[in-house]
Input
Amino acid sequence: MNPNYDPLESIGRDPDALEAFYGDHIEAVQGFVARRVWDPELAADLTADIFLAAIDGAHRYEADRGPVLAWLYGVGRHVLAVEFRRNDRELRIARRIEGRRLLDESGITRIEEQLDAAKFARRVYQAIGQLPERDRQLLELVAVDGLSVTEAAVELGVKSGTARVRLHRSRARLAALLRAESPGDVTASPHQLEVIS
Amino acid sequence: MNDNLDTFQTALLTELRREVIDSPRQAPQAVPSSAPSSAAAAPRRSTVRRLSVVGLASGAAASLAVSLGLVSFGGTTPAFAVTTAKDGDVVVTLTGAGPADAQQLEAALKDHGIEADVVYDPDRFPVVEPDAEEGVETRYFGRVSEGPAIIVRPTEDGTVVRIDGDKCDGVHWTMYLDDHGVTGILAPRPNVAAGHHPIGDRSKVHAARRN
Output
């Protein structure tokens, strides 16, 4: 871990530790969000929410359970799940920092570029939603966020061997779903095609 | 401040720094592993997850055959107890949980004939309603006509789960825990149309009951 924010819970007290943590992870968090939502303003809000949740929950991080990034993706999944469960009014009341208010024209353009680049990943993310719930988190971490099977297994608290078996089955289902949706579309990076095929 | 950041990233960092300066989070204090770590000065959580699961139908508490085994490990105060009720159901009572409790609970369930994965994951989104009123049940799989395989219901002191071992036979399911108790049961997707209980969704449970 970067010594500037070790222990991780220091990001909740030390603004310089927070800045180092933020610098290391802002691109990853924005990519994580871009693979899941289409709207630039919502993406900005969620990016702010994820960092706030990370600041609040940093004391829970346990280094022996996996890398910081995998933990941060776990925080992100939680934030998104809350987003999808609550209505707009509740969320506006709950939000401490509205990311969309921080956007200027260049910020919007930049996020739109990120959203555009993540088009295929969002298709994968959508298709994963059609799979049985037990397979979703694992595939999401591996096929959408690019974690290794071992990292994803640690993040989800399952044995690596179990994760590999589950992944093998669910990859085949996911690939079939994507082929059924648009058989001719191959606008994916080699890595993305590799993880789902 | 990092010069490589774009305007949005810079503005957000400024806001986050201000947040940490204005409302610094307290350092956590050490607590025994089996105690709920919520006691450890959890800094401002946006939602307070007070979960408990008690699948005890009313009056069923009296029927617990406690003599069949409260689980205790290594002389420490257990964060949970596993008992077998007179009707054969296995009942888990949790007052909190930590990473070590998940493994111990998994072993204890196995001792009672229940095969399940138990996973401690404080960051997992709680499927069991986090703010459910005490006494509200969440039911998990099993045919509606025959009753659910697993019932979860909040109580004042913690979480209780009631498990019908026969209905769980051959089903691979997972119980997720956080510091407060059970956050969800993950099991194969239910077939509501065929009369099965849905998973972790109280509104659907109620709809299924009406049907």
Summary: Residues 85 and 109 of chain B are 14 Å apart (CA to CA).
